[in-house]
Amino acid sequence: MNIASFGKVLAHCEFV
């Protein structure tokens, strides 16, 4: 798992 991918997922969850 890449940090960038994880960060993107977290950001998306927060946005939703």
Jot down its keywords.
single chain; 16 residues; mainly alpha
Description:
The chain is mainly α. It is 81% helix and 0% strand. It contains one helix and no strands. It has one helix spanning 3-15. The longest helix is centred in the middle third of the chain and has 13 residues, at 3-15. The mean pLDDT is 78.
Low-confidence stretches: none
Helix content: over 70%
Structural class: mainly alpha
Q: For the CA atoms, what is the radius of gyration?
A: 7 Å
Quote the average pLDDT.
78
How many E strands? 0
Entry summary:
By secondary structure, this protein is an all-alpha fold. 81% of the residues lie in helices and 0% in strands.
Write the layout of secondary structure elements.
Blueprint: H1 3-15
